[in-house]
Every structure is written in C-alpha cells, then in structure tokens.
C-alpha cells in the first residue's frame, strides 16, 4: 500500500458545456425589439444598444459633474434595471454571434440558394442527388424533396422513382413509411404526365401574389419578404391582399388547394349554408380597410387563425404588417401549434 500523493502533471479535464434555458418573451424588452430584426442588421442594432447603455452609465459616473442627493437617489433606484439590461444585452450578443456563425457557413448559404432556386421553379434534381450521396441529415433532405415537389407541381416520373429508391437505400427502409405518408399528404408526389408542361400551382401563385422580391431592403424593410431575404410567406401575402381587395386576384385564390369559403360578417350573422352556396368571391377586407383608414382611432383587430400550425417566419411577417402605419389592422395571430419544416415532417414519420 503506497500513501505517497500523486504528482501527476496532467491538466484537469475541460469543463463540460452547460446548456442554459433562456425564456424569450415580451418580458425581455430587448428581445421584443430584436426578435424581428434581419440577421444582417441585428448585430449593428445590438452594438447601438450597447453604446447607448455605456453612454448612460458614463453620464452619471462622470466625476467632473456634481450631483445632488435626488440625482444620486434616482441612480441608485435604476441600478437593478441597469444590471438587468446589461445581462440581457450580453445574452443577446452571444446569441447573435451564434446566429452569425451559422448563417456564414457555406452549407447554410448553399442550402438557402437551393431553396430560393426551387421557389423560382428551377429543377434542382442534381443537388438533391448530391445531398443524398453526401448523406445529409434525412429530414433536411426530405424538406428539400417536398419543396421541389410543391413548387414544381410534383417530381418527374423517372426522377421520382430514382430519388425514392436512393432515399430508401441510403437512409434505411424505415423511411419508406415516411415517404408513403408524405405522398398521402401530397407533399411529395409524382408529376402528372401530359403532352405539354403547364405552369405549376405555386408558379401561378408566385407570379400573381408577387411572392419573390429580388430588391428586398433588409436594413429598412418595406415588404414582408424581408423575413427570408426575398420570399414573402404565402399566408402573410394572402392576409395583405385580403385587406386590399381580391380584385384581379381571383385566379390566385382558385389556385389554392381546398375549398374557399367567404363568410360575410354582418350585424345579423350570415347563415353558413348560404356562404357555402356562394360562388363569387367577396370584396375581402377592403371595405373595412377603407373605414379603418378614414378613422384616426386605434386600429381594429384582425384575427388570423392557423389550424395545424404556423412557423415563426410567418408570425414575423404578420407582426411586420401589423406594425406598418399604412396597414389598417392590428393583427392577432392564433394557432394550434408552432411548427417548422422539421417538426412537420417528423410528425408524419
């Protein structure tokens, strides 16, 4: 038995990364300002906040300026608020660094470019095949497959079979069930063969509702398309169009899947059966928008309800609309769930 103390010079093991859970809500006033900032601008926004906080502190701690008891008492009362603001600012600066690190990666930019190309109705089959060969995370690959199918009106028959086969051979037979469920939901389907190619439903919607904005201004945005650097979420554009009236947009509405029901709100509510029989699309919210514009009072509330779920990007776009002085309504968004592409596909697995 040797009681001699160990003299090992090995360095201690590095500390494990600690995961912190941060509540992000309106209680944090800085978060309510920064959450809708574009990724290219919120770094400089936080720098401005840091500079303002530093100047506020320096103005009081300046020894050259004498202060009376009232000023000292006021400063002491503000110390907890200052400390809280400093802690919040530090947290958001760290988060901004992580976001910037992610968005500057070549894989992120390449993926963004691929998605943008698909939204503009380009065929990206080679990119999809390369992603499968590189064994990209399966649900990231499935999201691209669904996006290509939705924006192109389906996948060409030969490519549909080959892509389906490669997914199963690369990721395993358990994804055969996922693909079947995606087909049932019409998120991934074979393109209808015909003697001539016609524009897909999404292509018509993109053109009629101006979903792509190539000249988006991220520093001083004037359109909901800033939330994705050029693509206006379809749901937000529909809400915006509804407030302007459906004149000239009737065809765009008919391109949407499912049945369109236009119920007119009146002092005596319209019977639902009567609304179902109406084949002509109403004026939308245009008459109410005109009244709201005339009245200088508080904006009337517009409730937008999503059954099934809504993405944070759509919420950001609707919040942008609601804050615009020229938009006649204050939007309240209600939903059954907050989702994204990954959670949606995993729910079908």
In short:
By secondary structure, the chain is mainly α. Helices cover about 50% and strands about 5% of the residues.
- Assembly of the depicted chains: single chain
How helix-rich are the residues, as a percent range? 40-55%
Order of helices and strands: HHHHHHHHHHHHHEHEH
Query: What coarse outline follows from CA principal-axis ratios?
Result: globular
The biggest beta sheet reads:
2 strands, parallel
Strand content: under 5%
Work out the helix count.
Answer: 15
Distance between the termini: 59 Å
Structural class: mainly alpha
- Please mark out the parts with pLDDT under 50 across 5 or more consecutive residues, or reply none: none
* Beta-strand segment tally: 2
Strand neighbour order, sheet with most strands: 1-2
Q: Please tell me how large the radius of gyration is.
A: 27 Å
Protein described:
This protein is mainly alpha-helical. The protein is 52% helix and 3% strand. It is built from 15 helices and two strands. It has a two-stranded parallel sheet. Helix 14 links the parallel strand 1 and strand 2. Helix 2 runs antiparallel to helix 3, helix 7 packs antiparallel against helix 8 and helix 10 runs parallel beside helix 14. The chain is globular and about 85 Å long. The termini are far apart.
Would you spell out the secondary-structure blueprint of this structure?
Elements: H1 29-34, H2 42-61, H3 69-103, H4 106-119, H5 125-133, H6 138-152, H7 157-171, H8 174-184, H9 201-208, H10 234-244, H11 250-255, H12 272-277, H13 286-294, E1 301-306, H14 312-323, E2 330-335, H15 341-346
